[in-house]
């Protein structure tokens, strides 16, 4: 990353994604939307199924199921607002979330998916919340951006190797030591105590 790129990354407006959304492959965008939509639908149905645990007096299954239904509905409203046309202002919420950086959505999905699993780690809860967690991971990958080309990575490695000092120690090298002439520690034996003292 050049100095100019670092400065321009610092000058980004608040809320603007430093990774351009045009650099993300089309298949990764569709995978995020698709997994979010399917995960939201399955989370709602599996959450309702888990709520039936109240029939056997399993309160934690009821609470986790209700929480998973709410989380699944939120994900469904954000990823596929056409599925929730009957709810007012869903399109506006979806547009707001789309305007935010990808890492916001990734962090939100990961945080929302964890509590139902902690409350009731059953198969239905793990499957429903796991799909939402996977959607968060996909959006996290989108937030990381495009990988550097092989040539750029070679140049960065060559620059790091060229910056090494003649003594072989630099603070940026992965092989650097705190002290260049450090000697290994040796064990000389147990201390001898004098009984006359």
From TrEMBL:
Membrane topology label: Multi-pass membrane protein
Subcellular location: Cytoplasmic vesicle, Secretory vesicle, Synaptic vesicle membrane; Endosome; Presynaptic cell membrane
GO molecular function: calcium channel activity
Transmembrane segment boundaries: 38-63, 69-90, 102-119, 125-144
GO CC annotations on file: endosome; presynaptic membrane; synaptic vesicle membrane
GO BP, sorted A to Z: endocytosis
Keyword set, alphabetical order: Calcium, Calcium channel, Calcium transport, Cell projection, Cytoplasmic vesicle, Endocytosis, Endosome, Ion channel, Ion transport, Membrane, Transmembrane, Transmembrane helix, Transport
Coiled coil: none
Superkingdom, taxonomy of origin: Eukaryota
SMART domains: Cg6151-P (SM01077)
Main location class: membrane
InterPro entries per the UniProt record, alphabetical: TVP18/Ca-channel_flower
Family membership: Belongs to the calcium channel flower family.
Record's subunit section: Homomultimer. Associates with the dally/ magu complex.
Protein name as annotated: Calcium channel flower
